Amino acid sequence: MPLISPQEAENLILDSCQTLESEAIKYTDGLNRVLREDLAADRPFPPFHRVTMDGVAFHSSQLHGKELNIQGLHAAGDPPPPPLKENHCWQIMTGACLPEDCDTVVPIERITLREQKVILESQAVPGAYIHQKGSDAKKGDLILRSGLVLTPGHLGLAASIGAINLQVTRKPKVSVLTTGDELISPEKNPLPHQLRQSNGLCLENALKQWGPVQVSRCHLADDQRQTTQSVAEALEKSDLVILSGGISKGQKDYVRPALESLLGAPLFHGVSQRPGKPFAWWPRVAALPGNPNSTLTTFTRYLIPLLRKMSGATQQFPIIFPLATSFQRHCELTLLLPACFTPHGSLHVLEPQNSGDFLTPLQATGIIEIPKGAGEVSEAIYYPF
Questions:
Q1: Domain assignment of residue 374, given as a range
Q2: CA–CA separation, 242 vs 201, rounded Å?
Q3: Per-residue pLDDT tens digits for 115-125
């Protein structure tokens, strides 16, 4: 099977997946969930002329000179007060509803209070310090669009319109299966020829960092029967199965034979990239290379866009940033390299010694994609972790 480009691989992955169904949840549980309905303002925003400073409120026509009498206190949450008397004002608080017969607010910093009188120390400007009714949104205006990944601000806005029940995508069910006889539990002491398992934990937490998911994981021996059985069980209970390792062409790489016995030939096996060249995809199954850097890189480059589509999230456009120093392309392979931002907003490229080096990428905030070809590049697409 010939190598394909990273863009071809992404297209095949996204074209083969379906968006998950939605479910109703309480707004208090909505953080990082993907909204699956449009939400409109149930009344104007703000719903009244809202005072934005502590001070005094009055009608400009009532002002004769620089002095006013205080009729009383009007605070946030108070119902509309009685009509204002001639040459009087309300002592008013931030957030209060502006009385109907007032058009002017003067902040407390620009007045002098003397018993029940107010002396204005600067020119009063009608309309200042008043957040006009409906100036942010009118009743019925669309304020939250389907496809948003809900942030704290979005949820605050949902609460403010009374949207206490939200339609969101249900949590994806993901199984993470790692492979390799050389890998042992982190709780055990490895022999000189053994390594402690890390990819399963890394992938599980990369999934949780992306958003709300239901994750299960287990480790498989290099055995084709066990691999086939475990993948079959994972497919029954999961929307997505992620395997790490066992996808190359070694004599004990059993992932492809196991998957072919269940699902037939992969949509692709091999991408013209470094690291992660052996990456393979079947519908609902991602077979990632087993080296730590390759595993996290391919997850970031391909599976985050996949999870966004599965969840109905609005797809993000590629973001291009300048590089701190120009970088030499590879003539045959697209390079996927860890990078971090400099204080000036450009990207500093980090170069792991090989795909098994997972110390160098720990300094990174994401990966960059440098397309194959001749010469150097001074900018690159950035994929955040």
A1: 319-384
A2: 12
A3: 899 999 988 99
